[in-house]
Amino acid sequence: MYARKGYELVKDLANGEKGQLQPFNEDLFNQVVDQCTQHYLELQALIRKMHEESVDVRETRNADHYGALIHHLSLIRNKRCLMAYVHNRAEIIQSFAWKVGLELLELPEEVQEKLSPSEKNYFGKHSAALQSYMAEVGIDLNVDMVPPKDPYIKVRVLDDMGEGILLSDKTANLARHSMHFLKRTDAEQYIARGLMEELTG
Amino acid sequence: MANYYDIDGILVEEEFVPVVFQKAINGVKIDESTEKGYVEQGSKTELPFWLAQELHMRQAVSIRVPACFNQKTRLEIQADAACVDLRSRCPYFYEFGCKLAPLCDKSIGLLLSYAFRIRYKEVLHKAHTTAFAAASKFLMLLTKEETYMYEAAQSSMAAFKKWRMGGPRLQRASILGRKRKPAE
């Protein structure tokens, strides 16, 4: 069916949990591109046929015209599907930089595996742009938006994070299940990555 | 056009509509089962909405009412709209209906608003009262649009409870997905 591959690609994106990344479907992505080429070739063949019959390509509304039209529309449809796939993934990748961490290596491994090489490149450049902007205005824009009541918070470590991790005011041994009283700005990034949880009360 | 990159917007337009070709068309194979590479005038088939709409604009096809808005569905909705399984008929019942109504049958609009008014009440009621486990059967009946509404109602309820009771402000980033048990 016409432009069916593009639909499958978007469906693949929609089937994942909302706002979360699936592995980049390189195989299907290339199939859509191939299908675009196919539509383009058939479109060209029909236009050529109209030229050979020396009818006016702009004005005539014959069977060949409608055939070419369907291929043209299918091309546009596939293009929209491809664009939507890349665009929606790019938005999620941007939010990684804002919410999780600015370095690729700071992202959890299972997330890194889901990015295609050009998406990794995009992530790196987006982070760099964000960093240089934050350096220029002198504000950390990727921290929590609500002003804290207390600059320190109590946290519990959920994963083995190694010893002697350098925080802004001390080095700490963050063993699993240990509890700490940390500067909020230090803890935020670890909580976002799921390595710590905030304790209240 | 709705947002160009909108996933749901793309999926709505992939719903099939029955059409009758008003023009002969060369060089296309609409039906996978046949070998012939052309379409005759007056032949019937089903096309995805995005294609049918464009061809309709150029008077190449006429659109007929798809099965999800047929008489049987109308009668069921009139009987008790809240219990009709709209999802299996068309996952984007309302969006699709809105797009389709001006092209083939204006009375779809009335059907949509009637169905929505009754189902809206039911969705909000269930979202605020039912425990998640009990709701799963009800959720199977909802269209995509209604599911979003249900989730929005639930999350606003959860946010209200959190505001009243208090809780940790900082949480694991939702884009990383649900927390998995750490490998022991």
User: Helix and strand string of chain B, N-terminal first?
Assistant: HEEEEHEHHHHHH
Q: Structural class from helices and strands of chain B?
A: mainly alpha
Indicate the structural class of chain A: mainly alpha
Please give the share of residues in helix of chain A.
Answer: 40-55%
Query: How many distinct helices of chain B?
Result: 8
Average pLDDT of chain B = 83
- The averaged pLDDT of chain A comes out at 85
Biggest beta sheet attributes of chain A: 3 strands, antiparallel
What's the CATH architecture name of the largest domain in chain A?
Answer: Up-down Bundle
Please give the order of strands in the largest beta sheet of chain B: 4-1-5
* The CATH topology of the largest domain in chain A: Methane Monooxygenase Hydroxylase, Chain G, domain 1
Organism (chain A): Populus euphratica (Euphrates poplar)
GO cellular component, one term (chain A): GINS complex
InterPro entries (chain A): GINS_A (IPR021151), GINS_bundle-like_dom_sf (IPR036224), GINS_Psf1 (IPR005339), PSF1_C (IPR056783)
Domain GINS subunit (chain A): 62-137
